Every structure is written in C-alpha cells, then in structure tokens.
C-alpha cells in the first residue's frame, strides 16, 4: 500500500458514534493498513498493522508510528476532557492519603542504621544512615530528588554498600528501558564517579576485598541478561573480566552474595531448569565452580550456611522441598532431605540466620512463615486471623541476630512491619502505613470466595467492599488478575483503592491458574498448552460474582497488566458480553508475532512459558488464543488500553496494533482508548505521585461509564 503522510490524512476517521449518551460524538483514529505476509507452517496470514513495529526497528515508518500514537492520545484526551476536573480531584484525594513526610523503619547492618525518608512535595526518596545509634547525625547517601532534576524519568536502584561501609554502588536508568549505568559513591568524601559501565541490571555485588565488584551485563537489543563481569575499582571498564557468559537464550542470569557474606553466586535460570556457580567471597579472582550442572526440568536454589548448603529444589518434589549437602560435596548425589516434600504446601524461600531458619510457604492459597530453631529443631508457624492476607520477610540483612522482621497486609489492613523475637516469640509492631484522612478498617469487609471452573476446579477470589453493600447485582465491581509465570497475586492493601470503594465499587482478585497461589500444579495448569485455563478461570470468576449478585455484566469491569493484559485481550474476545469495561495495562496481546521474533526483548526467555511457535503444535495453540489473532467482527465492551513508547517488557506496538485492529472490526458503539505515555516504559512514571494520575484516569474511565462524577 502506498505510504501517505499525516498531512494527507494517514489517519482516516470512522463515522460511528460512541456511547453518545456518555461520551462526545467524536471521530476515532483509523490506522493505515499495509500488506505484510507471515508464512509459517504453511499458514499464510496478512498482518496489516505490522508496520507499527518500525519505531522499535528504526524503520522507514517510524514517524508515522509516532503520528498514529499521538492521534490516539489526542482522541482519548478529547473524549475524556470533561473528566479533567474530576481526575484532578481523584489525584488530590489519593495523594492526600499519603503521608508525604515519612520515614522507613531503620535496618541495622554492620554498625549503621539504614533507612529512607521522603519530604513534603518531593517525588523521590532520600537514602540515609546513622552510625551506631539513631540519635547520631544523619548521613544522606543519595538524594534522588536532587539527582532526578532535569529528567522526565529517573530510576536509581541496586544500592549496594561495600563490606567496610565506605563505598556505595548504584544504578541509574533515565530512559525507562531498564538499562542501567553504574555509579560509585565514596561515602567518606561524598565524591560520585560514573564507572562507565552501561547496559546492566542496575546492581553490583561486592567481594570482601572492598574493591572488586561483579555485575550483570544486558544485550542492548534483546535486553537479555547474558554476561557476568568482574570489575576492579579504578580500572578501565573495557578491561573488565568476563567471568561467565550464558549461551542458552532461554535463561536469565544474575549474581549475588550469601547473607553470611562467604559466597558469591551466579545463578542461571529458565522456567524449568537452573544452575548455580560460586566462589569464596574472599577470593574474587577465583574461577567459579558449578554447584550442580543443570538438569532437565529441575530447578534449584542454594542457601550457604556455616556448615552446609541448603538447596530448595523441585527435584522429585512438585511443590519444592529443602535438601542439604556438605560444603565440599555439592553434586546432586550428595543431597539429602532436610525438609521433605509436602503435597499441600508450596515451599517458596528461606531466610537464613545463624541459629534460625524462616521458611516462606504457601498453603491453601495463603502465604505462611515457619520458624525453625536450628539448635533444637523446634518449629513455630506464625498465625494470622484474617480470611485473606499476605505475609512476607522484610528487611533482614543481618545474619547473626535473634530478630526477624516481616511484613503483613490484607485488603483492609494497611502495610505493617513487625519484628519477631526468635528466642521468646514476642512480636512487636514497628510501623503501619499511615492513611491520612481517617481510615477505619471496620468500615470495610473482606471475604474469600470460591468460583467453580468449567473443569470443576475451585478458583479462590479475594474481595473487598465497603460495609453495607447489598448483593442485588447493582454494584460496580472491578475484577483483577495476572495469571502467568507462577506469580501469585496476593491480597494487599491499597490506599488508592479507597477512592473506588468509597464510591460504591467492590474490588476483587481472581487467583487464577498460571499463578502459583494453590501450589506449583496451579502454575503448570495455566501455561504452555494449558494456557486457556487462565482465561476461562477468570471468566468463571466473573460469572460467579454475577451469579452471587455482587455485580452484573452492566457493572462488571476487568483489569490486568502485562501478561495480565493478555488475559484482558483474551476474555474480551471470548466473553465480551460479560464485561461493561476492561482496562488493559501495557498488554502482551500479539503473542504469536512477538514469540516468532527473537530480536524483540525477552522473547527467547519466554519459550517455556508460552511455547515456541516455530513448533507447529505450539504455533497452532498460541494462535488460537492470542488476542490480536482472534479479533472478530462483533461487539466488544468499553476498553481502555495503556502503554509506554519506551516499554522494555511489552513493546508499544503490541497494544497499538491490537487497538487498530479492534477499531477496524468491532461493531459496537462502545469506546476504545489507547493512551501511550511518550516518556515512560513498562513501570510507568518514576515519581511517587506521578503514577496516581494514571490511576485517576483509569478510575475516571469506569466512573464515567457508571455515571459517577463526584
């Protein structure tokens, strides 16, 4: 098709009115179609919007891509213009609940108390410490507000203090592509040095000599973590030593240090297998040794202790178990059970201390903490009363201590940090998130429900709403889920969510397959050739909430981001009449084309999650659910799609193509918006308040559809 410049109307206009009783009768952008043939396995498919990849590929249509995204932005801005005052009100309302001048609970490490604090009106954190006691003078290690001046986006991460407390390494990304440069700060003189090291994950690991660091390098095109380098401070980074290179493009790699500071480890892991290499942290120039060569379908993670290694593994243990091996005999033939496999308990991790171990587990969909006294073998399960909640280790850098800190939250309990005396069992609340404006948890109700999937599986649902809600089908309800990578979406508190609940909305999380809430099998049953379970579980959860009269299709909304955005694309294709609206945040919706293109960031890492479409069976199955491939000429609900031009995880062109094709084929008069942030990437804005504007837009979108304007 002949290329037409924007001035000659690249973007033609549709004539159908949209929700004229609610939204203005404005014409929506219609993107050009250009012939592009995909031919694989004998299946020939025309992809008329393939050209939208050109900004990413730096192709000839780059300018036209930006013009199209800009036109879509202008469209939603015009359609939602009358909500601007309400969105500002929502923004200020959500911001007002946040304690602007605040301070984290100090964490003690090697003679210093480390903490972060924020100031009124400031977007970023100050990273600070005090020596020996909390009444000592404050030392500001990093003032991110100051560093971020002049940047539209600024992320500082990976803060790592040298063993002698005199230096700090940190990473900076000022583009929003998660490609970090490394900086060194001398904490004695205050001098900061750009190390000249780019394309990293943003963190570094110190050897015990206080002058050697290890860092992970990324491929600048695919963003895959491929290489581990050793750098000696004061030397030319071009001479950094490559200590490990991962040849398998399906693996992620990283480097870290054991809590007892004796071992530096390189971990290489894919979805189904992993491998660890290690050296003595006192010998940075040593050659890394393989702990145990990678094994097919076996994952393992090591925890170095004083007298042994613990190994958390799924070897002959679907839900993982803990094994042990001597320090000098690390091969699998020497592994022995330390905590045997349990069919009803998922082992998720270990927090190690000199005399204690704390196990993070999951049972019946709920997170748990179990304390083991290594000297007596006595175990204690920490108990919690709410029907649905989240608990997790938090801020425990010290190895030789009898105190363990953990975080706790639920849908009605703000984030709380506790300290448990491991000897006496005494539990102390150190800090609870303060919600300004008079929040009272007694005014809200949280429940745990179970929907029945089409195959009879019970799907947990966590729900929260304001007390007094009537189950009459008239309540607006937002249903959220993720359902991929084995990531569990636990019930947590959100102060911004109060703006929904206080206006009559209920909010629910569907703990669908593809996550790991109900154990490892829950994940296995929601990936690869069973991926459709993720989508039908979510639909069944929505149908259950309608059946129980928590809501109705007229008032039911769906939300998901990234892989959860794939979920959104699938469910509006499969069951469009169930939803009044859907919010797809940075959605992964062009599954087949992305998984066929190894030049797109992270593609090869994902083969064991979605399948490799170069295999015909995987291609056919993937094509049968990929949202972009399955758009039909039929009615769709109201849809808001968000993306970022610089997104490193899900490239902008996936949602852009999806929206363009939807707009071309859908037969309804419901609205379809594409909001592209031209400055930010996958995680959105970097400031602590900026993201509230995005939430305000999403809420205003649903409120407008519900006729709520105050």
UniProtKB/TrEMBL annotation:
Signal peptide range in chain numbering: none
Domain Peptidase S9A N-terminal: 31-433
Name under which the protein is recorded: Proline-specific endopeptidase
Homology family: Belongs to the peptidase S9A family.
Subcellular localization(s) per the UniProt record: Periplasm
Keyword Protease part of the UniProt annotation: yes
Principal location: periplasm
Pfam family, one: Peptidase_S9
GO-annotated cellular components: periplasmic space
Domain of life: Bacteria
Residue ranges occupied by any Peptidase S9 prolyl oligopeptidase catalytic domain in the UniProt entry: 493-704
GO MF annotation terms: serine-type endopeptidase activity
Organism field: Chryseobacterium muglaense
GO biological process: proteolysis
Functional description taken from the UniProt entry: Cleaves peptide bonds on the C-terminal side of prolyl residues within peptides that are up to approximately 30 amino acids long. Has an absolute requirement for an X-Pro bond in the trans configuration immediately preceding the Pro-Y scissible bond.
Keywords (A to Z) from UniProt: Hydrolase, Periplasm, Protease, Serine protease, Signal
């Amino acid at each position: 098709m002949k290329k037409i410049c924007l001035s000659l109307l690249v973007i033609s206009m549709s004539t159908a009115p949209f929700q004229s009783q609610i939204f203005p009768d404005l014409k929506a952008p219609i993107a050009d179609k250009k012939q592009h043939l995909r031919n694989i396995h004998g299946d020939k498919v025309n992809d008329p919007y393939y050209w939208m990849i050109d900004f990413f590929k730096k192709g000839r249509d780059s300018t036209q891509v930006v013009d199209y995204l800009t036109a879509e932005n202008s469209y939603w801005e015009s359609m939602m213009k009358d909500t601007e005052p309400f969105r500002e009100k929502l923004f200020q309302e959500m911001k007002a609940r946040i304690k602007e001048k605040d301070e984290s609970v100090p964490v003690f490490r090697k003679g210093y108390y480390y903490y972060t604090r924020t100031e009124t009106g400031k977007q970023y954190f100050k990273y600070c410490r005090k020596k020996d006691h909390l009444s000592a003078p404050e030392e500001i290690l990093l003032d991110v507000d100051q560093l971020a001046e002049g940047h539209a986006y600024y992320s500082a991460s990976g803060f790592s203090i040298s063993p002698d407390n005199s230096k700090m390494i940190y990473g900076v990304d000022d583009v929003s592509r998660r490609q970090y440069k490394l900086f060194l700060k001398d904490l004695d003189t205050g001098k900061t040095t750009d190390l000249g090291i780019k394309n990293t994950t943003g963190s570094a690991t110190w050897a015990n000599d206080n002058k050697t660091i290890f860092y992970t390098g990324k491929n600048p095109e695919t963003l895959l973590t491929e290489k581990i380098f050793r750098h000696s401070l004061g030397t030319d980074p071009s001479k950094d030593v490559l200590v490990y290179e991962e040849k398998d493009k399906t693996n992620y790699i990283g480097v870290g240090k054991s809590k007892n500071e004796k071992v530096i480890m390189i971990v290489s892991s894919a979805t189904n297998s992993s491998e660890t290499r290690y050296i003595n942290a006192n010998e940075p120039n040593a050659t890394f040794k393989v702990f145990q060569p990678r094994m097919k379908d076996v994952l393992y993670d090591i925890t170095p202790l004083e007298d042994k290694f613990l190994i958390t593994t799924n070897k002959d243990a679907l839900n993982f178990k803990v094994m042990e091996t001597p320090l000098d005999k690390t091969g699998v033939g020497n592994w022995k059970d330390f905590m045997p496999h349990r069919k009803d308990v998922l082992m998720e991790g270990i927090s190690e201390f000199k005399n204690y171990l704390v196990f993070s587990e999951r049972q019946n969909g709920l997170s748990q903490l179990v304390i083991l006294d290594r000297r007596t073998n006595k175990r204690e399960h920490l108990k919690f009363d709410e029907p649905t909640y989240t608990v997790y280790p938090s801020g425990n850098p010290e190895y030789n201590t009898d105190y363990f800190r953990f975080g706790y939250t639920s849908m009605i309990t703000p984030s709380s940090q506790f300290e448990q005396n491991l000897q006496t069992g005494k539990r102390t609340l150190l800090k609870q998130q303060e919600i300004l404006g008079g929040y009272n948890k007694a005014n809200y109700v949280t429940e745990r429900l179970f929907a029945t999937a089409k195959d009879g599986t019970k799907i947990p649902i966590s729900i929260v709403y304001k007390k007094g809600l009537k189950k009459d089908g008239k309540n607006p309800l937002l249903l959220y889920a993720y359902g991929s990578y084995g990531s569990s979406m636990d019930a947590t508190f959100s102060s911004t969510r109060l703006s929904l609940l206080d206006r009559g909305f209920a909010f629910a999380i569907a703990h669908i397959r593809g996550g790991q809430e109900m154990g490892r099998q829950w994940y296995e049953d929601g990936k690869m050739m069973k991926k459709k379970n993720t989508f039908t579980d979510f639909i069944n959860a929505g149908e259950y909430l309608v059946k129980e009269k928590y809501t109705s299709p007229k008032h039911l909304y769906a939300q998901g981001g990234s892989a959860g955005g794939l979920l959104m694309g699938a469910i509006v294709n499969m069951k469009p009449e169930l939803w009044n609206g859907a919010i797809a945040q940075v959605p992964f919706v062009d599954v087949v084309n992305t998984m066929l293109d190894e030049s797109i960031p992270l593609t090869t890492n994902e083969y064991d999650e979605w399948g490799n479409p170069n295999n015909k069976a995987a291609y056919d199955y993937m094509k049968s659910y990929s949202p972009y491939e399955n758009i039909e000429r039929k009615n769709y609900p109201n849809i808001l799609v968000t993306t970022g031009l610089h997104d490193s995880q899900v490239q902008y062109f996936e949602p852009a193509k999806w929206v363009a094709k939807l707009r071309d084929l859908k037969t309804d008069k419901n609205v379809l918006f594409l909001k592209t942030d031209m400055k930010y990437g996958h995680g959105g804005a970097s400031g602590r308040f900026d993201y509230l504007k995005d939430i305000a837009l999403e809420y205003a979108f649903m409120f407008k559809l519900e006729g709520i304007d105050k």
